[in-house]
Amino acid sequence: MENINWKEFGFGYTKTDYNVRCHYRDGKWGELEVSSSDQINVHIASTGLHYGQQAFEGLKAFKGPDGKVRVFRIDENGKRLQSSSHGIMMAEMPLDLFREAVIKAIKLNERWIPPYESGASLYIRPVLFGNGAQVGVKASEEYTFAVFVMPVGPYFKEGFKPTDYVIYREYDRAAPQGTGIYKVGGNYAASLRGGNRAHAEGFSAVLFLDAKEKKYIDECGPANFFGIKNNTYVTPKSNTILPSITNKSLCQIAEDLGMNVERRPITVDELADFSEAGACGTAAVISPIRKIVDADNNIDYKYGDEAGEISFKLYETLRGIQYGTVEDKHNWNTIIEF
Ligand SMILES: *Cc1c(COP(=O)(O)O)cnc(C)c1O
């Protein structure tokens, strides 16, 4: 193919050939539109710009050794965008339209789908926001949906290596009855200050605690948390955590591997009982955790300098399903026909 150097991609923005848009006006969704511009028209008085009426999604497509292109659990992302839309009163996009827009964006950028050998994949970023003039505080009557794709490099350039996380009690990501369960930009804005400090202090991310009691594990910045103990996969249950599709898939895989799965509140103290811990999400599947530093209490929870056996097995299985080298028992992949 053309001279694309697949090795040069990290997670930074790369302009590809086309993106797909769709507008909601007069109570209905319009036709899908294709654009080669990466600029978008935003009304100066839009609710997306002023009041944070905005949500996004993130998913990936993978080219397998068989040459087939697979998108992972596209309908789960479509449903989650509907849930986020419902949560902040945006127009909900029908699942079929979401699917069609995502698949169209992939197909139009076929030459940007990294080959299997590169270890890279195609990241897909749908976004939806209120885009009608609305200065009084209420939901917009007009929305813009857009989806772009870009190649992203393998997350683990130096292998599947654990990194460090930190607990700070002076930052909250989401309030107990707030928008933590929705994939909205506002949660990210709230996490930036803590995340920035974590990076400056040498950590991968903040492990946020529940905002009310500071007693339970919430999530790791933009990823869910899990711990392993006694052949059990334990992940927090709470009404402030974004329901990660990767986490949901790992729970199923853990079960398929004969493990127990527990979704329940996890106290900070329980961090001492896990033999392995990790952060999970689309970007990395699993980022194994080396240690969690509770700076306020001078405690380090340590999980080893190498990734644990179970984390590695879960990671390999999920990646294998995505690339088509492990049987897709639960029909998670959509194969794109070109
Ligand atoms: C997107 C996201 C995740 C990961 O979800 P996946 O569906 O696994 O990619 C986790 N936490 C937050 C806050 C997120 O926004």
Structure write-up:
There is one protein chain. This protein has 338 residues and is of the alpha+beta class. It has 2 domains: 147 residues, D-amino Acid Aminotransferase, Chain A, domain 1 (2-Layer Sandwich); 161 residues, Alpha-Beta Barrel (D-amino Acid Aminotransferase, Chain A, domain 2), CATH 3.20.10. It contains 6 helices and 18 strands. Strands 1, 2, 3, 4, 5, 6, 7, 8 and 18 form a 9-stranded antiparallel β-sheet that branches. Strands 9, 10, 11, 12, 13, 14, 15, 16 and 17 form a 9-stranded mixed β-sheet that branches. β15 and β16 form a beta hairpin. α5 crosses α6. The radius of gyration is 20 Å and the shape is globular. The protein starts with 18 loop residues before the first strand and ends with a strand. The mean pLDDT is 96. It binds pyridoxal-5'-phosphate (PLP). Pyridoxal-5'-phosphate binds next to α5. It holds the Pfam family Aminotran_4. Belongs to the class-IV pyridoxal-phosphate-dependent aminotransferase family. Its cofactor is pyridoxal 5'-phosphate.
Write the SSE topology.
Layout (H helix, E strand, L loop, with lengths): L18 E7 L2 E2 L3 E3 L11 H4 L3 E3 L2 E5 L5 E4 L1 H14 L7 H14 L12 E10 L12 E10 L10 E5 L17 H16 L4 E5 L7 E4 L3 E6 L2 E4 L9 H12 L3 E4 L12 E6 L3 E10 L4 E4 L6 H15 L9 E4 L2
Parallel strand pairs: 9-10, 9-16, 13-14
Antiparallel strand pairs: 1-2, 1-3, 1-8, 4-7, 5-6, 5-7, 6-18, 7-8, 10-11, 12-13, 12-15, 15-16, 16-17
Helix pairs in contact: 2-3, 5-6
The site of pyridoxal-5'-phosphate has 14 residues, from helix 5.
Catalytic activity: L-leucine + 2-oxoglutarate = 4-methyl-2-oxopentanoate + L-glutamate; L-isoleucine + 2-oxoglutarate = (S)-3-methyl-2-oxopentanoate + L-glutamate; L-valine + 2-oxoglutarate = 3-methyl-2-oxobutanoate + L-glutamate
Family: Belongs to the class-IV pyridoxal-phosphate-dependent aminotransferase family.
InterPro entries: Aminotrans_IV, Aminotransferase-like, B_amino_transII, BCAT-like_C, BCAT-like_N, BCAT_family
